[in-house]
Amino acid sequence: MCIRDRDKSVKIGLLDSSVSMSGHWRHLVRAWNKILEKFTNTHTITFSSGSKVVKEKVVSEDINKYECGGTEIMAGFLKLESFVKKLGDIDDLVVTFVSDGADNDSSTIRDRIKTLKPFPNVKNITFMCVAVGNQFPTFMSMDLRQVFHNGNQSVPAVFIVQD
């Protein structure tokens, strides 16, 4: 099912706002803001050294408003987990994770991803990973999909965006 067919679904963008994404941020935000305009029930979480739920309906093109620090990918997923729990029962959830995959501790990221659990209050999850650049570790998208995705299996595990 395409995202446009699921207007009643909750959509969450989990956006990497670390310094390594600063050259891509403006383009990423412009594309994400179009999604925010088009769909209701859409939310944004940013992460770098920490994470936060963006309260504004439009994400700023100024990455410095979202820390622009190191990359703590797990901080984003922990914020996502707590945010989804607060939403209560959800029939359909679409999560779009956008990152270059440059975690501060790449040697342990795989083990840390394995500690994540699917959301018990969500029936159907479509998890999409948008990998920015050619250095994204593809195992990350596969491991995250294994944890979260229980939706349409024809949705690719990763969409790669290169410079």
Summarize it.
This protein is an alpha/beta fold. It has helices at residues 25-38, 73-87, 109-113, 138-148, and strands at residues 10-16, 42-47, 51-53, 90-99, 122-132, 159-161.
Query: What is the terminal separation in angstroms?
Result: 29 Å
Describe the biggest sheet? 6 strands, mixed
Evaluate the radius of gyration: 14 Å
Average the pLDDT over all residues and give the rounded result.
93
Strand content: 15-25%
Q: How would you spell out the order of helices and strands?
A: EHEEHEHEHE
Structure summary, number of beta strands = 6
Structural category: alpha/beta
Instruction: Tally the helices.
Output: 4
How much helix, percentage-wise, in residues? 25-40%
Strand order of the largest sheet: 3-2-1-4-5-6
Morphology call: globular
Which parts are unreliable, with pLDDT below 50 for 5 consecutive residues or more?
1-6
Fold and architecture overview:
This protein is an alpha/beta fold. Helix content is 28%, strand content 25%. It has four helices and six strands. A hairpin with a 3-residue loop joins strand 2 and strand 3 (51-53). The longest helix is centred in the middle third of the chain and has 15 residues, at 73-87.
